[in-house]
Amino acid sequence: MAAPSLASTGINVESELKSAQSATVSTSASLQPSGRVHDILNVSLPCTELGSLWDINLSFSGNVQKVTPHDPAFLEVMKDDTSSPYINGHGALLAPALCHPHIHIDKAYLLSHPKYAHLQIEKGSFDEAMELTSKAKSSFEHDDLLERGLRVIDESVQAGVTSMRAFVEVDPIVGLKCIEAGKSLKKKADLRCHVQLCVFAQLPLFSGDDGGKEIRRLVEEATNPTYSAGVLGSTPYVEDDREKMKKNVEWTIDLALEKDLHLDFHLDYNLDPNTEPLVWHVIDILKAKTWTTRTKKTIVLGHCTRLSLFKDNEWKRLKEEIADLPISFVGLPTSDLFMMRTETGARGTLPVPHLIKDYGFNAAISINNIGNAFTPQGSCDPLSIANLGVGVYQAGTKRDADILYECISTRARNAIGLSTEAGSSSANVLSLKPEKAADMLLFSKYNPNWRTRRTISEAVYLYDGPDKRTVFKGGLLRYVRRISYNNPQITSSVASSQPPQTDHLNAAQQTNNFPSELLDPQLEQLDLESIMSRNEALASKSSWKKTPMQLPAPSPNFPVSDIRNEAKGKQSMGPPPPPQHIDEPYVEFLHKPVESPDAHIEPLSPGRAPDLTRLPPQKQAELVLQQLRDLGERQKARDGKYRSVADELRKGQAQAQAQAQKKGGHVDMGGQ
């Protein structure tokens, strides 16, 4: 049984239960889902020979440790290894995870949310969008900001996003509501997605009745470190005249330097050839303020549709003027093509691949808004923007596809200062190299096999939605795609709520010597459920987006069932039911397929560890197992590998045998 074997190594289950009762849990503490993977085997990689397969070994810190040619024999060995969680990618593409370098998280889904559904588009103009958004902002409340923001985060993570720059507006209409909600969202997203908050002044800083005095006061207050913002942004083109636009630029740069924040301007949002681009003034002020000697922070210039009218000599001049300033451009094609229009019907957006290939700028693309009057259409999947870019930018070569994928992944992270090599061109490449952080996206295996995405160009050209991807952040499994069951005897509700409970790869050899259960997909889901109680009440109030989660029934073959029953003096549960057949496991994971019942990631929420005596047995078991997980992580850090219950049993047997031999006796281990 589990408890005696754990006691032999100094683990007292009852004391662990008591410590769990009194523990205070933060969003990054033990109730967060853990899902560490040590090896991702049999995958295709970007920037490698077509048809080659590779094995990735991940370090305990979550970085890529080794990249080696795939060895099928090694995969066979791993199936019998009880200490190293792994995934078999079946030849599918493993690529860098995705990034939103520019997304407005506070005003997403206004057109579809019941509270704001009366504010619909009639003209489709920029002025109308500003008016409708201002009306909506006057009704913003913390709960609906969280509800809509969590939808953005959840759907982004499902698509493969592990980092984003999220704009939250500050002005006299909303006060500090958006930054306060943004702080909560950042905390809730935590291990799933890095949310970099940008304090954003959409309204004028120097125009209006009070000359912008109140909004400037609020912006300064919002940059206080207690709000966890890392970026300051503004919109100079909304000012009344050119001089106030310049003052907007200068004031924002000064404050960013004072607070040591990244800088982000919405700039030159027009298609008027007679309007002098403000980008020249931005560059002049950055140089005059000696940006590069005073800070290591990055600068992003978004929209910049006026620059799409530049000729070759103007692009070359711009590149020379920027020199060593850490400036990146972010194109926002879904917004620009909807909003930017001329009398002749011409539309324009920043030609991002052209900037990268022909002039050497760093640039990225993003979705900007979603479901509001600025951008009513789209999804939270950056790959949909890359796919759109093939036509918008007439970028159809293999190199073009690589660039488009870089623009929603490595280049995007570089632009917003999240890369460890931020500002360096080497940070933009798609290749997975040792010491790179393991934020990765694994595409799905398909039948027939030729439909499996194996190259970046296939992933960009053949967009088929975000549902068939597996997402890793820092080496941790963060999202697993749906798996379909084809047993006609299984109803849809059972298929979604009760994944198979035995090893379908080695069912005949199944024993009670369990491998490490640290990454069991059922536990991943149970942990998510156990920490989102605060959001359940919020979700129950809304009929707008209800995604009920059906938890799997407790698995009788969990090692924790032994621990729970021994701790409470109960009889052990019976044998597991016969295995169900599933259709082509997408990945192999700890001797069993990875599945995520009705797989969607629910929002995370902080909370305190509940009193165990008030919990049902299954929840008690979850907390006990989490304590064992933590001990296992410490063991891995010390010895370089996990020890399973089977390892502890074998160790106990060996110790008993050694003691018996010393006494001249014999111990029969056959009944273990």
Description:
The protein is α/β, with parallel strands linked by helices and 672 residues long. It folds into two domains: 2-91 and 439-652, no CATH class; 98-428, TIM Barrel (Alpha-Beta Barrel). 36% of the residues lie in helices and 13% in strands. It has 23 helices and 18 strands. The strands form four sheets. Strands 6-7-8-9-10-11-12-13 form an eight-stranded parallel sheet. A four-stranded mixed sheet has the order 3-2-1-4, covered by helices on one side. A four-stranded antiparallel sheet has the order 5-14-15-16, covered by helices on one side. Strand 15 and strand 16 form a beta hairpin. Helix 2 packs across helix 22 (617-639). The longest helix has 23 residues, at 617-639. Mean pLDDT is 76; it is low at 5-11, 15-34, 482-543 and 546-610. Residues 539-581, 630-672 are annotated as: Disordered. GO terms for molecular function: hydrolase activity, acting on carbon-nitrogen (but not peptide) bonds, in cyclic amidines. Keywords: Hydrolase. Residues 630-651 have a biased composition (Basic and acidic residues). Residues 652-662 have a biased composition (Low complexity).
